[in-house]
Amino acid sequence: MSAGRLGGQDVAIAVETTTGSPSATDYAAVDVAALTFNAVKPTRASSSGVAESATIPLYNVPSVSTSGAGQVPEVEAPYDVSDDPAIRELGEFGLTFKAEAASGLAFGSTRLKELLGSGLGVVAKPANTTQTVTAAVSATVYEVGAGDIGDANPGDVVAWVGASRMTEFALVESVNVGTNRVTVRPAFSAAPQVGDVVRVCSVAYPEIGSLGATSLAVRYRDRARYVLATGCRPNAIALNFGGDDTRTAELAFTFAPLFKETDVNAVALDPPANLANGIALKRWGEAVYGDTSTGARTVATLRSWSANIALGLDNVGSATTSIVGAADVETVSAQVTVSLTFANFARNTLRDWLRLGSTYTWVLPLQGQEGKGACLIIPAGYVSELPGDTIEDERSYSTVTISAASSPYTSTTGTPTAAAGAYFLLAFAS
């Protein structure tokens, strides 16, 4: 974060024990004294948005007047201990981060998991959960020892470093504990060889109807302001790409808080900290799509891609419980769309995919250090939008929007994880 007129800033998040952190003794207040705030490192431009778009809900009294003049509105909030209406600011805000790798870390203890877990389900793997290949079988099947076979199950995502030294990702379709073999889709670029290491990833996935103590409190401070937002869950999570070559991945969250207040800051700022292991994820490597029945692998030569996860939120419980206005917030929908811009891709093929309703398993990788990447997987992606070609610098590019259909991978062999059958997965090599 650069030091400008405000001389710096800090942003910290805390996992709430009760959504919105309402005070147990004062229904007109929130209480975050027992929460543990951990500093994070967003970009300055986005973090300042915590204090923006703040509106105070008002009740405009529809009373008549003899003069026809308007009526003074009333703040829509409970009365505080002084018999004055309390203040609750609302308005979305965004935090954008450098997307980071997670290898070598207990994913469940990272700030990355806390942010993703506020809107998505998370299957967190212990640090360095790996399997060692004991027999080369095929590009879609690998064999491991009896002691490793239980580390990967249907719904998991696994990562393997191929001959090009790029990290490749695939979705675990089935596990045979009799033969100690794991079947994945889509295929790797080659059969994993004896002694190769397959890394089992932590994943975030859509969890509809989810409730629980996973909402966040977000604290923003600069030299002048203190902003506290509670009951925060994201209604949008986006993967974009910044940097001069547009390859460095950025992970952006848009939050819809239940409560927000702004005050004067009078304390020292905390130093920023990484979301995960600090290693930037970049758009390198081969994006692939695969046949959902055979797992056959096709390399997609992309000029660029970006993804957006739109989450529908609905307040739960009594609106008079406290100043936060709801007992909880439920995720009622989750939709992912990916914009792909192909380099020299046959438009006729894209048109046929749209015409025939074709679905493919899409794997969009992000590279960190070797084996320390991440990926977005859509098990059954279909063309939902096909705009016209773009002519730029005497070249033609085809852009297409891919959306997620129901996953065809519903195997119950092994012990399926909570993410089994998910229609999209955001995976991090742990």
Describe it.
With 430 residues, the protein is mainly β. The protein has helices spanning 44-47, 111-117, 347-356, and strands at residues 9-15, 38-40, 58-59, 74-75, 93-98, 121-123, 130-136, 141-144, 157-161, 167-176, 181-185, 197-205, 216-222, 225-232, 234-242, 248-255, 259-264, 287-290, 297-300, 302-316, 328-343, 360-366, 374-385, 390-392, 395-404, 425-429. Strands 7-8-11-10-9-12 form a six-stranded antiparallel beta barrel. A five-stranded antiparallel beta sheet has the order 2-1-13-14-17, with helices on one face. The longest helix is centred in the C-terminal third of the chain and has 10 residues, at 347-356. The protein is globular and about 80 Å long. 44% of the residues are buried.
What is shown here, in short?
The chain has 430 residues and is mainly beta.
Topology:
Elements: E1 9-15, E2 38-40, H1 44-47, E3 58-59, E4 74-75, E5 93-98, H2 111-117, E6 121-123, E7 130-136, E8 141-144, E9 157-161, E10 167-176, E11 181-185, E12 197-205, E13 216-222, E14 225-232, E15 234-242, E16 248-255, E17 259-264, E18 287-290, E19 297-300, E20 302-316, E21 328-343, H3 347-356, E22 360-366, E23 374-385, E24 390-392, E25 395-404, E26 425-429
Antiparallel strand pairs: 1-2, 1-13, 3-4, 5-16, 6-12, 7-8, 7-12, 8-11, 9-10, 9-12, 10-11, 12-26, 13-14, 14-17, 15-16, 15-20, 18-19, 18-22, 20-21, 21-25, 22-23, 23-25, 23-26, 24-25
